[in-house]
Amino acid sequence: MTSIVFWLFAVVLIAAAIGVVTSRNPVYSALYLVLAFFNSAVLWILLEAEFLGITLVLVYVGAVMVLFLFVVMMLDVNVEKLKEGFTRYMPIGVLVAALVVIQIGYVVWHKKMGLELVAEPVAHPKEFSNTEALGEVLYTQYVYPFELAAVILLVAIVAAITLTMRRRPGLKAQDINKQVAADPGSRVRLVSMKAESETLPPKPGGESS
Fold this sequence. Notes:
mainly alpha; Four Helix Bundle (Hemerythrin (Met), subunit A)
């Protein structure tokens, strides 16, 4: 049963990954990536890495991908302009893709990285805590790479905000200095008008008010 669930979600994951790189619409690519994250989370859970699976859904799907969609929509990417030089760079892209496939095939089928490809993961005892083991390794052996990744993500966020705030024709930007220095007298004008009584139409029966 576990093998059937694994192959089912693995096939969907590969299809979603292909959709990410082949979709012409960046929004559709982001949605395909969300689907890929969901299937990856299921595979992590099957490997008894529950913390990684839940984090993948909560952090990447629930936060990072939402922000990514907002950035894609706010950047107003001109898809037609990006397609203009596609055929010119296609030979280089095909060459790079072929090299990546050859390298992955060499590692998987020849080296195997010392692992058995068809071996099932060893089940941990019930008292084993995946979160505790991950935290112990992450904050002791890999603490500096972890902090460096946080700095890189901060720089990426700042860069995304900078791109969205760039000057574009017709963009209405907020000027805080002008808002603070605004004079109420120049914004509001009081006009004195004479009061006029409204003449109502005569009521039925000849009476008027």
